[in-house]
Amino acid sequence: MSEHKADKGKGIWALPVFRAFAPPVETPPEEREKSSSEIVPWDLPGTPLRTKASKAARGFYAPAGVGAPTTTRQAEILNTALIGPPTGTKGVVNGRDVLSRTSISHDPVTAYNSSPREVSSPNTVVMGDVGAGKSSFVKTVCVLRPLLLQNRRAVIFDKKDQAGEGEYSNVVRRYGYEPIRFTADGTGTRLNLMDPMIARGTGVKGQARLLNIITRLGRGDQSLNEWEEEALRAALLMTLNRFEGGRTPVLADVLPNLGVVDPERYESLSPDARDKLHQAGLSVRWTLNGLLDEYAGLLDGETSSEVDLTGKLTSFDISQLPDDGPAVPVVMAIGNMWMLGRLRNERGWATTVVYEEGWHMIGGPSAQLIKSNQKLSRGLGISNVFVMHKGTDIPRDSPGITIVQEAQSIYTFRQGRPEDAQWAQETFGFAPETAQTIEKLRDGYYIFKYGSHPETHVQHIRSQWEIDVTNTDEALAAAAGRE
Ligand SMILES: Nc1ncnc2c1ncn2[C@@H]1O[C@H](COP(=O)(O)OP(=O)(O)O)[C@@H](O)[C@H]1O
Ligand SMILES: [Mg+2]
């Protein structure tokens, strides 16, 4: 302000009366990133009202600042499908509305806890092709930015390998934590299927359900029949009774009890039925035996001490586990159940749990776990973020579909295949023409929808610091000598 005044007082405009009529002094446009889509108002010719060119030349008219081309609400008319209502400023900045250029703010936890509720579920789905910008988005908008809010924490199941470790390792280390590494060769972290923390969260029932799902995963998603379920339940109870007051039981302690038919419990059974139960128990035993054998270092023994959620940021680095086979979904399932028990003691915190390659949780039998624990997990302040490539693989009538449909914060990145884009449009209730937009979205652009609001086309914008921390091709860049 004071600088302007000093400039104004030049020539005749410095004289007492003239001073009041001095033309405005042009302020140099700020140094800003020149982008072809950005409109810089003071470079534009001005409004037609500036009828006298000579006056205009002398700067008698104020600069015709056009500002943003429109507000979100006005732009709704331009393309009703892609302009949602303005989001307000609650939560964290998600990006910029492509048409109105206003900022979009949203945070599933804030929206879920506001009154009245803006969303009925804190769960989030992020969908899109490889390389469309999902992880960069999740790292910033779902992990880093909400950590600035009070009592917030994030847990990540980090699946993508980047130079020998998970792609979130960088992010986690910046916060001063070490990723929890899992390997299939016995050198990494262990998770105990029988950890008492699991029963603390969901009871013995939950523990039985987890054992059931793990067996199912070990068999390539073939479900257990009722005989096998009964045998598994009986073996679990037998193990828990035996170890009550003693050391923590582990999976290897359950195995010998599978196939044992308790004479008292099954007194009324015919010899044939007992034999059938015995055989059912054995068939479960062979499956679990196979799992233990294959992933010895992962599942045998008590949960490693580094598995803890004391910090604000925790990553379960599962990037070194084999892609095929049940290791990844097994760790996700046990980790999920373990967390439900662990968070029981810590009310008042909200935890964002990110499942990169969320398909392992949603597309397979583990979806059942998420679904049955949904109420508990909301009560504990958990907001799940499922990151997926496409939805077309999720069986139509599976619990996984229900989870996706119930999620209330949807971020759809580019899906190049028309059938995938179509799937997203139908499942999330986007306008019909949005399917085409989804096929052509650029990296870092997405269709955002929350609650029952119509969708918006948004550009995700990262600060330089965020780009440095989150870029996945950093390793490649370093190798190419660009760093
Ligand atoms: N907001 C953005 N703006 C511009 N480019 C981006 C943006 N987000 C991501 N990208 C580019 O896309 C690349 C892949 O992003 P990534 O998040 O790893 O995709 P995905 O997880 O969907 O496979 C990044 O390395 C980056 O170069
Ligand atoms: Mg990714």
UniProtKB/TrEMBL annotation:
InterPro entries: P-loop_NTPase. Residues 24-46 are annotated as: Disordered. SUPFAM superfamilies: P-loop containing nucleoside triphosphate hydrolases. This is ATP/GTP-binding protein. It comes from Agromyces ramosus.
